[in-house]
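Contributing new records

If you add data, match the layout below exactly. Sequence lines come first and carry their own label; structure lines follow with theirs. Keep one chain per record. Anything else will be rejected by the validation script.
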Amino acid sequence: MTNIIDIYLEKIQYTPGDLVSKHDAISAIIMKDDKILMLDHVKYNLWTIPIGKVDEGKSVEDGLKQEMKEELNIIPTKFKKKTIFSKSYMREGHKVTIRNHMFEISEWRGNLKNNEPKKHRSIKFMSLDEIKKLSKLSDSTKEMLKVL
């Protein structure tokens, strides 16, 4: 059964990198005062923990550091891998499989801010209860709710 999010995702304008048949990605659980950092993602029109593609030839740890610097102006200094999961999507008629490496970041350098306002409408720390009440969540966020 097709759900509303799947229908929406088929209408997105994907970049060539979004259509690579298999690639690694990272996602990050960033906690502060028992709240989790969430981003209101413009392109996918949903709430998500920080996520991003790992550039070919880079380690997932380097991909994590690069994405956090680009998106949030921070460099993780203490982090640990929480889980790895794979998810397949149909994008413009192509099957794309993403292997996501989820990390928990407990310490970082830099001042946390939204470096990509065209990509993220806003960033906000939310409690688990607040996150569970959101109607549209990324697959990474749903997976995070399972591991926490």
